Amino acid sequence: MTTLINTRVLLVNRPRGKPKASDFCIDQTLISSSAPAGGILIQTTHISIDPAMRGWMSDAKSYLPPVKLGDVMRATCVGVVIASGCRAGIHSSNNISVNTCNKAENVRVGQMVKCDVGGVQTYVSISEDGMRHVKPLPQMAHGISPSAYLGVLGTTGLTAYFGFYRVGLPKEGDAVLVSGAAGATGSVVAQIAKRIMKCRVIGTAGSDEKCKWLTDNDIVDVAINYKVAGKSLSRVIREAAYPKGVNIVFDNVGGPFLEAALSNLALGARVVLCGAISQYNSDSSISPQTITGPRNYMNLLVKRASMKGFVVFDYRKEYRHAIGELSKYIANGRLIHSEYVVEGIENFHTALMTLFDGTNRGKAVLKVSPKNFIKANL
Ligand SMILES: NC(=O)c1ccc[n+]([C@@H]2O[C@H](COP(=O)([O-])OP(=O)(O)OC[C@H]3O[C@@H](n4cnc5c(N)ncnc54)[C@H](OP(=O)(O)O)[C@@H]3O)[C@@H](O)[C@H]2O)c1
Fold first, then answer.
1. Engineered SS bond to 186: which of 106, 180, 288, 371, CB 3.0-4.6 Å?
2. Taking the model in full, what pTM does it have?
């Protein structure tokens, strides 16, 4: 048995407002190179960077408990299995046959896996009980990298799929307004709406480059730079959705966007509350006024519209089917996907901040660098 050095990012402060580099600390700890009985040891290759991480850093109630101070920052990761605690075979004890090959038998050493409880660290040791959070990745199709299982074939792709189809209830020809349209979730929603459901798609994004990418790649019909539109965002959306307004709003950002969207609903519109990233760094301990909500929610009544939130995990039983559908969309060229990769585990904070300053286009991913794997000289 040898020893490995595990490089980890720990949460050491609960951020106030935007997370700071000093809210995290990078540490190195020695771990065994063998796997726990019935479990596996994973060498991480890619770590998912998600807006939800901001919620897990605070101690407010959410759909998952907060990350404890001093713990490894929670994250989904993909990686390669480097040790298995599965001692394949039957052995006999007290004349009773015991199958010692356990939950680890579904994966073999060398296989790529996705782990929902991986954390921001170079090695993940999974106990037998933790094996329910591990999924072996299928044979990669041409042009698909393992990190796609963190994005278009992972949580953000599934969020787009279920949020749009199940909550948005699209019909052919609907006018669909998507915020964060150049992001991981928004870009998939926009493409399903335009290319699969034949809707007319209006997308908002925070730079001219992103808007150009959206129109050049035929991801949306109209792209609006919400930073340029500023206070006239509602009017710009009205012109783009003229004359009937929008049938579906798929909102990733909340705040002023949501208010502008509610001013432009068609009769019977569906507003899908996927997220509200513009509000995630609002902190009532800094100012009680920081959360911005829609003052014009009565438009929902006037337009006989509905507004519904959802959490992708509620569709867990249908993931396999949805991943199959998304894979087909990719294979037949109807769904393109883009990743924004930051390399080096020490750059976790930089990678996280791309979500809040809008640097990322497509799925934000932290790639573990070969330099992050240090040999233990014992
Ligand atoms: N309900 C669910 O189950 C579920 C699951 C996964 C994700 N989500 C939510 O889905 C949303 C998108 O997540 P993602 O992982 O796909 O992230 P993403 O869209 O790839 O990245 C976040 C984007 O948000 C935009 N943004 C940041 N601050 C903003 C602000 N103040 N106003 C407007 N836009 C802002 C930035 O783009 P610009 O350059 O355009 O500003 C940034 O690129 C998030 O709200 C997330 O919490 C929900």
1. 180
2. 0.95
* Rounded Cα gap, residues 1 and 94, in angstroms: 29
Residue 180 CA, closest ligand 1 atom number: 40
pLDDT in tens, 166-198: 999 999 999 999 999 999 999 999 999 999 999
Phi-psi region of 361 (alpha: psi -120 to 50; beta: other; left: phi over 0): beta
Q: In whole angstroms, what is the distance from residue 137 CA to residue 144 CA?
A: 11
36 lines ligand 1 (CB under 6 A): no
Answer whether 44 contacts ligand 1 (Cβ < 6 A).
Answer: no
Residues 250-266: tens digit of each pLDDT = 999 999 999 999 999 99
Q: Are residues 199 and 175 in contact, defined by beta-carbon separation less than 8 angstroms?
A: yes
pLDDT tens, position by position, 94-139: 554 445 556 777 789 999 999 999 999 999 999 999 999 999 998 8
Q: Is the CB of 107 under 6 A from ligand 1?
A: no
Minimal-distance CA residue to ligand 1 atom 5? 159
- Shortest-distance Cα residue to atom 37 of ligand 1: 358
Evaluate if residue 88 carries a pLDDT over 80: no
By alpha-carbon position, which residue is closest to atom 36 of ligand 1? 358
- For 130, residues 6+ apart whose C-beta sits below 8 A from its C-beta are 39, 117
Alpha-helix runs per DSSP H in 309-347: 319-331
**Is the C-beta atom of 207 inside 6 A of ligand 1?**
yes
pLDDT band at 142 (very low <50, low <70, confident <90, very high): confident
Task: Compute, in angstroms, the gap from residue 52 CA to the centroid of ligand 1.
Answer: 9
CA 41 to chain CA mean position, Å: 24
Instruction: Please state the atom number of ligand 1 nearest to the C-alpha of residue 313.
Output: 3
The CA distance from 378 to 376, in Å, is 6
Coil/strand/helix, residue 24: strand
Mapped onto helix, strand or coil, the DSSP state of residue 324 is helix
> In this structure, are residues 42 and 126 in contact, taking their beta carbons and an 8 Å threshold?
yes
Task: Give the integer Cα–Cα distance in Å for 316 and 150.
Answer: 15
Q: Is residue 19 classed exposed, middle or buried when 0-12, 13-18 and 19+ CB atoms within 10 A define those classes?
A: buried
Cα atoms in the 13 Å half-sphere on the side-chain side of 237: 32
